[in-house]
From TrEMBL:
One of its GO terms (molecular function) is protein serine/threonine kinase activity. It catalyses: L-threonyl-[protein] + ATP = O-phospho-L-threonyl-[protein] + ADP + H(+); L-seryl-[protein] + ATP = O-phospho-L-seryl-[protein] + ADP + H(+). SMART domains: B_lectin, PAN_AP, S_TKc. Its main location: membrane. GO terms for biological process: recognition of pollen; response to other organism. Belongs to the protein kinase superfamily. Ser/Thr protein kinase family. This is Receptor-like serine/threonine-protein kinase. Its EC number is 2.7.11.1. It holds the Pfam family Pkinase.
Length: 826
């Protein structure tokens, strides 16, 4: 039809013509077909005046990478949006939405078109515009087109030369920042490009969390809540190679595990930050998540999912109002958000999806209805009451009130209906209306939390007066009776207990008695090994003959209740490359752990010729990959990030198929503050310690990465990293391996017992990974997730720099001097 309108007008057939002639009808049909074929073909990535986009139609970028069309975020027939998504992956992740705040009801009667003034517009069923590029083009309608590019950028361009861009979606980000886009500020117009998260996982409406260049003019990026009123994270100023609070960027510029380039430009007319990907090997995106964190995601085909590469802020509870009004955040809980006592989730469906930003609502209204008017204190005392919540970081928007005591502070809050909470600690602080950003510090290990009193309706509490006394009396009597009964039952049970009648606690963990484990291990007669945390003995459970390994812990000073809580947490961690905890024992000062037994023992037996046989290269490579996967799970995928702190061959166990299992992964958590002293004084462990252990700086997951790299050298070579020859000379093998890597001759790095039977491509990859893992600066070491991707062959590896410590430790005299001083460190 468009082609026909563009053709030369023809004179109508006269009534005297033989319009019914089959020959003439065939001739007309042929001419019309030829005319359509002769008309210019319209690209499938373009919207023009003659070709709007409507209904189920989709535009696909020239390379097929991105698509543009109508979509529903929640399969609701009432809300449709025009957006861009990835076209080649099964998860059609949305990266941009035109009408975020104005959903359409029917895509079949809506259309994306070029308007009479040359703008690209989205029209609803009444042909009213709900979104527009809103550019004064100065050209006719048929002189502009809309094109979806392979970068994910939607542009309004000159029809005769699409390289002349009049408008682009890259200047109007949604929640996603794609490679090539510029996030910054126009200094002439003051216009700012920012990322604004979705309101919910199924609601593209602009939410409360955003990322933008500092409005104050500093060369840093900030994340804010509700515009710029609440800043809760900043990148730190640009230092020339990185933002000061994002050291990972330095690693990204130097680390071969990264395929990204980053740069910040501070020009005369504009300031902006941009990033790009080298080649087309990976899909990547920055996104401001519904949770208020900015996340750097990479698509992994083998896993068919987006994998988190980096995120900020690291702690979920650092996000302002992440749990909404009257929600409380706890880092060690899953999920992190919960409602205060007397409140319930305001939007239960979103809450279950992991979006807690809508917060919580009162289950019972306050006596005064939450207004701002005052009522007599006496009346309020009889109605609303307070629930005391201990160990919290208080919100920052409290108002100081003049009060001489905690009771005065309570009455000051009761005297105003808008007051929802108070806290007294020598001074009185009141909070009015919504209570936001409460943070529970219980179990966080940082102490310093204070208590806050939350105002609730009286009906949220039990009865008072005589009724309360009666209940208390009944409870006391019941408890006394229960105690007496428990004593009797305990005596009877102890007399008749058998090992197969073991108690099950905390899921699948078994609570053993010390006598149980004495029987199981034949009085601890067969020792399998030992280390800094204690000795390990072989045993079997009489009930079914299950072989087990029993570890007697030494130096644990935790109380029984705390120890049980920590063990139950560790016991819930399940991964194919982590040793499985079966049970535990706590009696008096005794602390024992029961693990599944690994028939092929520890890795050091097979690497260093202790009667365990010689491992093939294929087995070694799979062991290295398995350990990396296990550590990645501990660091990134557990409810709590767990740092192992003692990665070495002795703590890698092998099952009957020689699959690797990381052992002792929870012992650093159980040992508490003493574990650092134990590690630095333990023989054989000191060679795996990262430099930050020595300098006394904070320990992160990158300490495990360093230890893993040192162990990987040993897996490759089949020898200890540090060996003393018969002549007394000390050889530091990692320095030798690095030199061989740079010289391009890695055959000398491989265990000689393999007689050259090794995949040299995998050897080179493993050596490079090991060198990157043991870099002096933790910022330049990769994450274990990236190590897994490299060993799996998903990411290429470039030559690493020689660590400075290698240059020092390559000198045997320096090595001896350096490590001889370590046992005195505490």
């Amino acid at each position: 039809m468009a082609a026909a309108r563009g053709g030369r007008r023809r004179r109508p057939w006269s009534s005297s013509s033989s319009c019914g002639s089959p020959f003439l009808m065939m001739l007309i049909s042929c001419l019309l077909w030829l005319h359509r074929e002769a008309a210019p073909s319209l690209a499938a990535d373009t919207v023009t005046v003659g070709r709007p986009l409507s209904g189920g139609q989709v535009l696909v970028s020239r390379g097929g990478k991105f698509a543009l069309g109508f979509f529903q975020p929640d399969n609701s027939s009432q809300r449709w949006y025009m957006g861009i998504w990835y076209n080649k992956i099964p998860d059609h992740t949305k990266v941009w939405v035109a009408n975020r705040g104005a959903p359409l009801s029917d895509p079949d009667t809506s259309r994306l078109a070029i308007s009479a003034d040359g703008n690209m517009v989205l029209l609803d069923r009444a042909r009213s515009p709900v979104w527009s590029t809103n550019v004064t083009t100065g050209v006719a309608a048929n002189s502009t087109v809309g094109v979806i590019l392979d970068t994910g950028n939607l542009v309004l361009a000159d029809a005769s030369n699409t390289s002349v861009v009049l408008w682009q979606s890259f200047d109007h980000f949604g929640d996603t920042w794609l490679p090539g886009g510029r996030l910054g500020r126009n200094k002439l117009t003051g216009e700012v490009t920012r990322l604004v998260g979705w309101k919910g996982y199924d609601d593209p409406t602009p939410g409360m969390f955003s990322l933008e260049l500092d409005p104050g003019g500093a060369s840093q990026y900030v994340m804010s809540w509700n515009g710029s009123s609440r800043l809760y994270w900043s990148s730190g100023n640009w230092t020339g190679g990185m933002f000061s609070s994002v050291p990972e960027m330095m690693a990204s510029n130097a680390d071969p595990l990264s395929l990204y380039t980053f740069n910040y430009v501070d020009g005369e007319n504009e300031s902006y930050f941009f990033y790009d990907v080298k080649g087309e090997v990976v899909l990547t995106r920055f996104v401001v998540d519904v949770t208020g964190q900015i996340k750097f995601m990479t698509w992994v085909d083998s896993a068919a999912q987006w994998v988190l590469f980096w995120s900020e802020p690291k702690a979920q509870c650092d996000v302002y109002s992440i749990c909404g009004a009257f929600g409380v955040c706890a880092e060690d809980a899953l999920p992190a958000c919960s409602c205060l006592r007397g409140f319930h989730a305001r939007q239960p469906r979103r809450w279950l999806q992991g979006d807690h930003t809508a917060g919580c609502a009162r289950s019972t209204a306050l006596q005064c209805g939450g207004g701002s008017g005052a009522q007599p204190a006496a009346q309020k005392t009889k109605s609303d009451r307070f629930f005391v919540m201990p160990n919290v970081n208080l919100p920052t928007d409290g108002v100081t009130a003049a009060s001489a005591s905690a009771r005065d502070c309570e009455l000051a809050c009761l005297g105003n209906c808008s007051c929802t909470a108070y806290s007294y600690n020598g001074s009185c602080s009141l909070w009015h209306d919504d209570l936001i950003s409460l943070r529970d510090t219980t179990g966080a290990g940082n102490g310093g939390g204070r208590s806050i009193s939350i105002r609730l309706a009286a009906s949220e509490f039990s009865g008072n007066g005589n009724t309360k006394k009666l209940i208390i009396g009944l409870v006391v009597a019941g408890v006394a009776a229960a105690v007496i009964l428990a004593v009797v039952v305990t005596v009877l049970v102890r007399r008749s207990r058998r090992l197969k009648a073991l108690r099950r606690v905390e899921g699948s963990l078994t609570a053993f008695t010390y006598r149980d484990l004495q029987v199981a291990t034949k009085s601890f007669s067969e020792k399998l090994g030992g280390g800094a945390f204690g000795s390990v003995f072989k045993g079997s459970l009489p009930a079914d003959g299950t072989p087990v390994a029993v570890k007697k812990l030494e130096g644990v000073r935790q109380g029984e209740k705390q120890f049980r809580a920590e063990v139950s947490t560790i016991g819930t961690i399940q991964h194919v490359n982590l040793i499985r905890l079966l049970g535990f024992c706590t009696e008096r000062t005794r602390r024992l752990l029961v693990y599944e037994h690994m028939p092929n023992g520890s890795l050091d037996r097979h690497l260093f010729g202790h009667g365990g046989g010689v491992l093939s290269w294929e087995a070694r490579y799979q062991i290295a990959l398995g350990v990396a996967r296990g550590l990645d799970y501990l660091h990134e995928k557990c409810r709590d990030c767990i740092i192992h702190c003692d990665i070495k061959p002795e703590n890698i166990l092998l099952d009957d198929a020689f699959a690797a299992k990381v052992a002792d992964f929870g012992l650093a958590k159980l040992m508490g503050r003493d574990f650092s002293r134990v590690l630095t004084t333990m023989r054989g462990t000191v060679g795996y310690l990262a430099p930050e252990w020595i300098t006394g700086t904070a320990i992160t997951t990158k300490a495990d990465v360093f230890s893993y790299g040192m162990m990987l050298f040993e897996i490759i070579s089949g020898r200890r990293n540090v060996e003393q020859g018969q002549d007394g000379a000390v050889d530091f093998f990692p320095a030798t391996a690095a030199r061989l890597l740079f010289d391009g001759d890695l055959k000398g790095a491989v265990d000689g017992r393999l007689a050259g039977n090794a995949d040299m491509g995998e050897v080179e990859r493993a050596c490079k990974v090991a060198c990157w893992c043991v870099q002096d600066s933790e910022a330049t070491r990769p994450s274990m997730g990236m190590v897994v991707q490299v060993l799996e062959g998903l990411v290429d590896v470039n030559a690493p720099p020689m660590p400075r410590s290698f240059k020092v430790l390559g000198d045997p005299s320096n090595y001896v001097k350096f490590f001889s001083a370590l046992p005195s460190i505490s």
